[in-house]
Amino acid sequence: MSNWDRFLDSFFNARVAAEYLPKIIEGFWLTILLAACIILAGVAAGLALAVLRSLGIRVLNWAIIFVVDLFRALPPLVIIALLYFGLPAAGLSLSGFAAAWLALSLVLMAFTEEIFWAGITAVPKGQWEAARSTGLGFLDTFTLVVLPQAVRMVIPPLTNRTIAITKGTALASVVAVQEILGAAQAGVSFSFNPTPLTLGAVAYLVLFLPVVILGRWVETRFAWKR
Questions:
Q1: With contact defined as beta carbons under 8 Å apart, do 211 and 32 qualify?
Q2: Residues 52-71, buried b or exposed e (16+ Cβ, 10 A)?
Q3: For 175, how many CA atoms within 13 A lie in the half-sphere containing its CB?
Q4: Distance separating alpha carbons of residues 142 and 56, to the nearest angstrom
């Protein structure tokens, strides 16, 4: 057998591919479900923290900054491990899916809060003053004038962050979640052949190429025209 034949047999083995393709497809859909749950929870929590921070309550702001900086500094894999392996010692057990969802949601929350806060502070002060001069209160000014402008400005970086956190779902494989990478690794372990990893790579391409293209369109669509 030539080197090329050995390469094909190792990474493109048709028999192994046919056997483990259904598992990779199941992992593909699980990855989408996990990513959707993370994005919904993380973006909502980040926006809520940014809104609370805009109230200007000093003690509350300090607490928000501490939490945000903490989860921005900690590696996501460490958070997943702490939640999955550490919480049982405190009498609280989480499934692998729940631990990965909570950990990555907290990470996304931290980055999203900073993104929304940057958008809020980027709105010119004159917008606040003009709205208040019409008789609008702080809450109405914030929700009707400032926040819509801030959200429009942060859509491109927010899209990039959600793409990055979706890629981070591969970390769930360390807590036995059978997403794409987990399913591929299990296939390699049982088949003694790396072909399932090739299938996993193809699955990631199928998942992320449309997402990246959509992200590029969003960046262009919502960029401020100069």
A1: no
A2: ebbeeeeeeeeebeeebeeb
A3: 25
A4: 13
Q: What is the rounded CA–CA span in Å between residue 74 and residue 184?
A: 27
pLDDT at 219: 66
- Give the residue, 3 or 201, on which the prediction is more confident: 201
Length of the chain: 226
Is the pLDDT at 226 greater than 60? The verdict is no
Amino acid letter at 129?
Answer: E
Q: Decide: 150 and 122 in contact? Cβ < 8 Å.
A: yes
Tell the residue number behind the tokens 């083995």, with chain if given: 13
Tell me the torsion sign for CA atoms 52, 54, 60, 66: positive
d(CA 119, CA 116): 5
Percent of all residues in the chain with a pLDDT value above 70, rounded to a whole number = 94
Q: How many CA atoms lie within 13 A of 207 on its CB side?
A: 26
Q: Tell me the whole-structure pTM to 2 decimals.
A: 0.84
Rounded Cα distance, 209 and 36, in Å: 17
Over the stretch 79-110, which tens digit does the pLDDT of each residue have?
999 999 888 888 888 888 999 999 999 999 99
Q: Environment class of residue 200 by beta-carbon count within 10 Å: exposed (0-12), middle (13-18) or buried (19+)?
A: buried
Burial, 150: exposed, middle or buried (Cβ in 10 Å; 0-12, 13-18, 19+)?
Answer: buried
From CA 195, how far away is CA 201, in angstroms rounded? 10
Q: Number of C-alpha atoms within 13 angstroms, CB side, residue 26?
A: 13
